[in-house]
Amino acid sequence: MNSQRRSETITYVRITQQSWQHGKIEGEVRASQYEWRFQWCFQQSRLWVQPTLGRALIYEPLGRFLENCDYKLELGGDYQFIVRAEL
Questions:
Q1: Residue 78 sits in which domain range?
Q2: Tens digit of pLDDT for each residue in 21-38?
Q3: What pTM does this model have?
Q4: C-beta separation of 13 from 29 below 8 A
């Protein structure tokens, strides 16, 4: 049986702004050589990620992370999660 190890990339998230009244969290996300800014409007389940370069690689995994953890995230906090791909 040939067992192949899946590629993984550690993704780092920093929360830079948070407003429970307006229902949004903003921050920065970094994976491999890519860096993005994001805004998560959790009341509408909307995610914006900029710049567009490499956005397709992070959009879905970042969205899942935010949906699962948004109520635990704190302003100024640093977090990480694993993307099951090599970016």
A1: 36-82
A2: 999 999 999 999 999 999
A3: 0.86
A4: yes
